[in-house]
Write a structure and sequence with these properties.
It is built from five helices and six strands; from the N terminus they run αββαβααβββα. It is α/β, with parallel strands linked by helices. Strand 5 and strand 6 form a beta hairpin. It is globular and about 40 Å long.
Length: 173
Amino acid sequence: MGHRGYDSLLRPAFLFLCITAVLSGCAALGKGEPAEPSANAAVAVWDLEDLSCSPAPFPDMSVMLSGQIIETVRQKGEHEVIERQKLLMVLEEQRIGSSSLADEDTRLRLGKLSGARLMIFGAYQVVGKTMRLDLRLVDVETGKILKTSEKTAGAKDLNGWLSAASHAARELF
């Protein structure tokens, strides 16, 4: 049997192993209850990503929504919030460029260096008449997603956007 014969035998086996690995990983995600965030753990909040295809109806929403999340976590009083300035100082000390921040591993490393044990990442997207907001609470040490939250609001309802961010943040804790 020539080289091509082995390739034709190995491809289906490789495909089977890949599918099995993906399915077992998906099954493992659904097992058990999500881990609870550590009490009093410091939290860092990153600006949310705008995933909308066209410009959102309100400028600078990423900063405003992140600010609302920070204020909600702060008001709850169970966690110290790492200020954005501290994250920026660590960023400068590490000489990490803004293009590197697209990588979640880099952001987790910065969170760890700033003293955060938890990080909140998220995104929002306007589609038609609806804005959808998704948040995830991540353990800095392991990179494991502890909890997620999803909220919607009217696309042109600024108060609805801020309320959605606040409700989503409360759900994470």
